[in-house]
Specification:
By secondary structure, the chain is an alpha+beta fold. It has helices at residues 30-43, 85-91; strands at residues 15-21, 44-55, 66-69, 72-75, 78-81, 96-105, 110-118. The chain starts with 14 loop residues before the first strand and ends with a strand.
Length: 121
Amino acid sequence: MRDVRESLRLPDVSVDAVLAHMLLCMALSTGEIRILAGEIRRVLRLGGTFVYTVRHTGDAHYGSGTAHGDGIYEHGGFAVHFFPRALVDTLAEGWSLAEVHAFEEGELPRRLWRVTQTLPR
């Protein structure tokens, strides 16, 4: 098991795609998310694709439970960083943002975005 706040153990420009399902909305600060996105950018080849899913501020749990600051709320013992659209746009700077697709998952249901962005060639 790895701590995603550490550098990825991959060489620069070594992968074609990265998929991160709900990883970025863990209890990571915005700064830590930006560093992780930078690591993903480092390992992607030019033209590579980064697809990630995150819970967003339209989710029913956003704003409920214990607030930890920086958009992080703990509900039922699990802390989530809820993404505003502005954070998606910030993480897409310098990328080609192909899609921000809204969808629902689970019983609540959880409200998520699937973000697809490509590193320009």
